[in-house]
Design goal:
Number of helices: 10
Largest sheet: 6 strands, mixed
Order of helices and strands: HEHEEHEHEHEHHHEEEEEHHEEEEEEE
Number of domains: 2
Helix content: 25-40%
Number of strands: 18
CATH architecture of the largest domain: Alpha-Beta Complex
Strand content: 15-25%
CATH superfamily of the largest domain: Creatinase/methionine aminopeptidase superfamily
CATH class of the largest domain: Alpha Beta
Structural class: alpha+beta
Bound molecules: zinc ion
Strand order of the largest sheet: 4-3-2-1-5-6
């Protein structure tokens, strides 16, 4: 068994044991990939002590065999209701966890119907966030891939700084960035490139529009690349020509909050406490109401994953976690400023992975 997959499964089985479960079903795509290596779009993992099964259909059998050599591949022709009850009784497993946040209600209901009619002793128990919590703490190999993705985004940010000009539309700038990242080796980008200028930059998740970029207005650029399945996430706010007084004040406040947080955040702090550091600085700057989103989020196989850094998040930060620190201030009618870096918690403090100038 590959040592990487073996370690991940061993940790998962430890968690299952504590919950009194005989096994777990995994179908959430990133969780499935993390635990098996298989990145096809359909399939269930059934993980139990001494038994790892990947059930998928004929479209994916060859891919599954090559990507998930640690699994017994079960070719299936029906959905899970057709094969799970029989397999579970064959393996003598009675309490199986499933991803309560992912399995659809209709599939769950149908499974319960089938189990009930067949008088099966199998019990399905919803669990939440077990694999996601394992994924939050990265292995060195994962940090390397994220760093490569961050390097591509850094280069793209440098590139667009040199090429963006008044009259260029948001869409044109976004496409230039995406093309650049793909040419530099990014896999399909993990999320749509955001280029939001002037009043549009007050929308944290604006869609690039046909609006022509102008001088002296904020331009929020939020981009990510993907390498080996792993995402990066980076935001910068720039201004062409002379900026107004508001821009200077807002930018300095956001930058102060971001640098201040990076300097203080440490392991065992909760996501809520980390968020509070930036929030207090922004409140003191007079913009408390204008920081509407959380401080940051974990990044890995998914762009948004654990840990969540935001108001009241109890999730504890720990060495090995990779997450963003991205305070922002958004003023309707004027625009916004967001500065986002990807960081890794290492030896008790935060190290910045992204290097784009700010
Ligand atoms: Zn982000």
């Amino acid at each position: 068994m590959s040592p990487k997959i073996k370690t991940r499964i061993a940790k998962l089985l430890g968690e299952l044991g504590e919950k009194g479960l005989d096994g777990i079903l995994i179908s959430q795509p990133e969780n499935r990939r993390y635990l098996s290596g298989f990145d096809g779009s359909t399939g269930f993992l059934l993980i139990a002590p001494d038994k790892n099964i990947l059930a998928t259909d004929s479209r994916y059998i060859i891919q599954a065999k090559s990507q998930a050599p640690d699994y017994e591949i079960l070719p299936v022709t029906s959905d899970i209701g057709g094969w799970l009850p029989g397999l579970a009784s064959e393996l003598n497993i009675k309490r199986v966890g499933f991803e309560g946040e992912y399995l659809t209600f209709s599939l769950y209901r149908r499974l319960c119907d089938i189990l009930g009619k067949g008088k099966s002793v199998l019990k399905l128990i919803p669990v939440e966030g077990i694999v996601e919590s394992l994924r939050a703490v990265k292995e060195p190999g994962e940090i390397k891939l994220i760093s490569q993705a961050a390097e591509i985004a850094d280069a793209a940010m440098d590139y667009i700084r040199g090429n963006i000009h008044p009259g260029m539309t948001e869409k044109e700038a976004a496409w230039e960035i995406e093309k650049f990242m793909r040419e530099k080796g990014s896999q399909p980008v993990p999320f749509d490139v955001i280029v939001a200028s002037g009043p549009n930059s007050a929308l944290p998740h604006a869609q690039p529009s046909a609006r022509a970029i102008q001088k002296a207005e904020p331009i929020v650029i939020d981009i990510g690349a993907r390498v080996g399945g792993y995402a990066s996430d980076l935001s910068r706010t720039i201004c062409l020509g002379d900026s107004d007084e508001t821009f200077k004040k807002v930018y300095d406040t956001v930058l102060g909050a971001q640098l201040g947080t990076i300097a203080i955040v440490k392991p065992e702090m909760s996501g809520g406490e980390a968020d509070q550091i930036a929030r207090v600085i922004i409140e003191e700057g007079g913009y408390g109401e204008a920081f509407g989103h959380g401080l940051g989020h974990g990044v890995g196989l998914a762009t948004h994953e654990k840990p969540r850094l935001g108001p009241n998040s109890p999730e504890e930060l720990a060495d090995g976690m990779v997450f963003t620190i991205e305070p922002g201030i958004y003023i309707e009618g004027w625009g916004g400023v967001r500065i986002e870096d990807l960081v890794v918690m290492e030896a008790g403090k935060v190290r910045e992975i992204s290097k784009a100038k700010k």
